[in-house]
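Re: How this chain folds, sequence and tokenised backbone to follow
Notation: Tokens come from a learned vocabulary of local backbone shapes, not from coordinates.
Start of record: The labelled sequence and token lines come straight after this line.
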Amino acid sequence: MKTWFFLLLSSVLLCSCSGVGSDSREDNRFVVLGPSLVELMYASGLGSRIVGIDRYSDWPEETGRLPQVGGYIDPSLEQIASLNPTSIHISGESPMLRELAETLGIPCYTYRFDTLADVFNSVDSLDARYGAQASDFRDELDEKLDSLAAKMESIAPISVMIVIYHERGSCSMTVAGRSTFFADLLSSVNCVISAPGTGSWPLISAEGVIALSPDHIVCLYPGETDTLEIISSEKNYWMELGFESDRVHCLFEPYIMIPGGRIGLIAQRICACLL
């Protein structure tokens, strides 16, 4: 029998004495894994219930005071159990964490953030379970997207390629596909994503980009600091392929690929490039 199981068993016994797993006890100690989900929890007014997060979550500032319990692939089961959680919340699926939750006698809730509909569904799930400010967040996001759509009316519809990864000088790159939250955000402001017909994050050649002929190209470099060098390099690369310099943009915000509590800002930054 594995060592961690003994530790978990001890935790279960301890928790049982304090009523963990009882239907009458309030669910107010969350372990949450996934930056998008952690952000959404805070934006929904549930941050005070979080007692542990994954190692990749770093917003808002309050997360810096929370214990980190590992990542998706390597969560620390012993540490999670020691936090005496009343529920586990994860982005995607994790059989390991589901088994842990079953052992601890607590629920394990899963969420998806692939599309904008997934984000809304996650908000609705939080609102149904806990209320708080989840519905307010959804209303604010709807208002933000409607406002951006109104601003974009003068130039829409335009096609936009979102470049997720491009090694400098390389003739190929990874772009956001048609079944991603980027595509949905663009659609919500009356624009269209420029991407191959299949694949969420397809690899495309420079020739493929030329064939698609997007009106704008937005390159994402979340958290990078050598911004001037990157901008110069990208603009020169795309100009050599026949794209005008003012149609090539670079975004460096650390949240630009995290569809969570700041997803409205993602849409706002992309629209700012296009206007």
